[in-house]
Amino acid sequence: MAVIVVSGSASGIGLATRARLEAAGDQVIGVDLRDAEVLADLATPDGRAAAIATVMQATRGCIDGLVVCAGVGPEFEPWSTIVSLNYFGAQALLVGLREALAAAEAPAAVAISSNSSTLPNAETPLVHACLAGNEAEARELALTIDGHRTYAGSKLALARWVRRNAPGADWAATGIRLNAVAPGAVLTPLLQRGLDHPAYGPAIRNFPIPLGDFGTPEQIAAAITFLLNPDASFCCGSILFVDGGTDALLRPDSY
């Protein structure tokens, strides 16, 4: 039985991932604002520190897997919270629980990015501030742009952090496989809030999906559990797009 930590485990993709892992016999330690073993606000430094300390104590410093899934969408206000949760909350858990992963026999970690990270407007100074570890600057920048670019930038920064760190001394060299999934439009409570938004709703509905419909949380959970599984033992620093073909349609020459 593997011990897997899943942030954002109370709803959407995180909840579907939890269900899939538990059905396979794994023990899941959820981290969320509610309905989880570890209750913590990952949008704040204190919440991140408390979550890491609680997980380390509960697992005696050894976990087999980590999925950083907690996040909010572009409609969430204030926009500064988007970057604090989606990037800094995820990155802090990855760093803070890395030693617990390294103590396991065949550990793996999966971050949740987004196919919106590949859109042209994702590249803003906010991405640099995130990767530089400057949360105060990133939060200030978020308030000067908009929710969509803040969301896309936070997910782009997270994908780049995974790519930059996965092959390095702290991860691959210590036996930890680090990868990411980039979902497209998935029918979760997060997406529903976007669909209900007067500005974002029409844009989401008009976004092209070659396979024809929104994805399901279970489809993304399947990709996440694959990357956690030994079957993916040669995957390192990969960004797996699970978006119904949207990225391939919009960027056919990029891979």
CATH architecture verdict: 3-Layer(aba) Sandwich
Q: What CATH first level would be assigned? A: Alpha Beta
- The fourth-level CATH homologous superfamily is NAD(P)-binding Rossmann-like Domain
Q: Report the count of strand segments.
A: 7
Query: Helical residue percent?
Result: 40-55%
Give the spatial strand order of the biggest sheet: 3-2-1-4-5-6-7
Main sheet characteristics: 7 strands, parallel
Radius of gyration computed on alpha carbons:
17 Å
Pick out its properties.
Rossmann fold, 7-stranded parallel β-sheet, alpha/beta, globular
Structural notes for this entry:
With 255 residues, the protein is an alpha/beta fold. It has one domain: NAD(P)-binding Rossmann-like Domain (Rossmann fold, 3-Layer(aba) Sandwich), CATH 3.40.50.720. Helix content is 45%, strand content 13%. The protein is built from 11 helices and 7 strands. The chain has a 7-stranded parallel beta sheet, with helices on both faces. α1 links the parallel β1 and β2. α5 crosses α7. It is globular, with a radius of gyration of 17 Å. The model has no long low-confidence stretch (mean pLDDT 94).
